[in-house]
Amino acid sequence: MYRVLVADDEGIMLEALKNIITSNFGNECELAFAKTGRAVVELAESFRPDIAFMDIQMPGINGIQAIKEIRKFNSTTRFIIITAYDQFDYAKEAINLGVMEYLTKPVKRSAVVNVLERAMEEIDLERKKRSDNLKIQEKLETVIPIVENGFVNSMIFQEEGGSDLGYYKMLLDIKEEYAYVMLIQFGQPNEEGILTTSVNMSVRAQSFYPECCGICKEFFPCIVGPILTNRIVVVVPCEPGVQEYQRRIQIIEQARHLTRKLGNRLEARFRAGIGKTYRMEELKLSYNEAYRALCQSTSSVAHVDDLALHGEYQGDYPADKERKLLSLVAKADWPGTKRTANEIFDWMVRNYYDDREDIQLKVLEFVIWAERDAFMNGNLESYSFHSRKDYMSAVLSCSDYTALREWFLGKLEEVCHKIATKREEQSESVVSKAKSYIDENFSRELTLDDVSRSVNISPYYFSKLFKEEAGENFIEYLTKVRITHAKELLRNPALSIKEICIMSGYSDPNYFSRIFKKQEGVTPSEYRDRL
What we know:
531 residues; alpha/beta; Rossmann fold; Alpha-Beta Plaits; 12 strands
C-alpha cells in the first residue's frame, strides 16, 4: 500500500488524477486530497504520504513553500510537481528540494503512470533495505551476547585467550587497549551474610539475563559475560592508566546505582567487586582482584584499591613488564620473552648497578617462578627436590652482568622450549587420536561434538587445534576419508551407488554425488565407468 497525497486548487485536476491513479493501481494506493498550501501541510503531518503530487500555484502557501515545510518532519516523501507554469526558477528550486519529477499541465495519463511506477519502485527498494537492516539488527541482537560470552571466556578463563583478542575486538568494535573487570554477585544473604542462590532464583536469573545485560550497559560501556553460578562477569573497556581517586569514586557510585536497579528488578540482593585497569591481555588479573574484593568486603560495592591490605611495589618497579614476562613464558613465546627479559634486566642494571646480589636474587626468582608455573600447568615432565641444586652456584659464579644476563636468558629459553615441545606433543596426540576415531567411525553420522568428546576437549578448542595441527578443518578431513573409502568401494561392481553412499557415511545419494564430484571432478558413476 502506498499513501498518495494530491494537492491542487483545481477540482477538475484532482478528479483527473484520482481517476488515473485508481484505474491503473486500484487498491494499491490510499489517496488524500488538499486544495490549499496550508491544508496540504497540515494533512501531510497526519497522513504521512509516500508520494505527493504538488501544484505550485495554490492559494496562500505555494507548492514550493509547502514542500519545504513538509520536509521538516518528513524527509522520505517523493514529491512530483504539477504546474501550468514552465518557469526555470521554480524548476531549479524544485531540484534543490529533491523533487522527483517536474510535470507541466496538461499532464498526460502515461506520464502520471510512469512517474508513479518509478516512485513505487524507489519506495519498495527503500522498504526492502529497511527490512533487511532490521533483520540484520535482529540477528546481531542474537549473536552479540554469544560473541560477548566468548570474549569473556577467552580472555579470563582460557590460557591461550590472548591470541583471539584481535578477532573479538573487531567483532565487538572495541577500540580501547585496556579494561577492568566488575564481578556482580546476586542471591539472598545467609546467617553469615554470604549471598547464596536457590535453584529457583538461578532459573529466574537465566530468564532475566538479557534484561540484566541491558541494565549493565545503561551504566557502563561494557561487555557482559555469562552467568557463573551466582556471578556475572562484566568487562569495561577504558583508557590506560591508574584509576585516580575521583574516577574510582565515580565508578563505585555508578556500580551502586547498577546493583540497586538490578536488585529491584530481580528481587534479590546484588553486590559488585571491581578490579584495577590492565591491558586486555591481562584481564585475568583484574578478574582475580574483583573476586578478592567480593570475598574480602561486605559492602554492596567494593573496589580492590579500597581493601585494607594489598601489596604494592615501591618506586617505579616495572610490575607490568614482570606480569608480561611470565605471561609470555606461559605462551612459549621465546622472542617476546627474550625482549621483555632484556628490558627488565636493563632496568635493574640501570637503577641498581651496585646491588649485584639483589639483581642475582631477582634473576633466580624469575627463573624459578617461570619453571614452577610451567610445572603446575603440566608443561614440564618432571620436577624433583634437587632439580635446581646448581642454580645458586651458577648465578654466584657469573663474573659480570653480561654472564648473568646470558644465564638468565638461557634458562628462560629452556622453559619456553620445554613448554612448546610439551604442547606440540599434546596437540599431536589429540589430533592423532581424533583422526583414528574418525577413521573408525566415518561410516556413521559423525559430528564435531562426537569427535571432540572422544578426545575430551571442548568443540571450539578442538576445532581450532585440529585445523592448526592437521592443516585442514574437521569437515574437510572427514570428507577426504569418506571419499577415499568410496573410491575403493566403487571398484566393486557388485555394490550399487546407493549402497556405497550409505557405507561411506552419507544418507542422501544426491548429496553424496555432489560432494564426490566436488572432490574428484566426476560423479561416482563416471568414476566407476573410468575404472
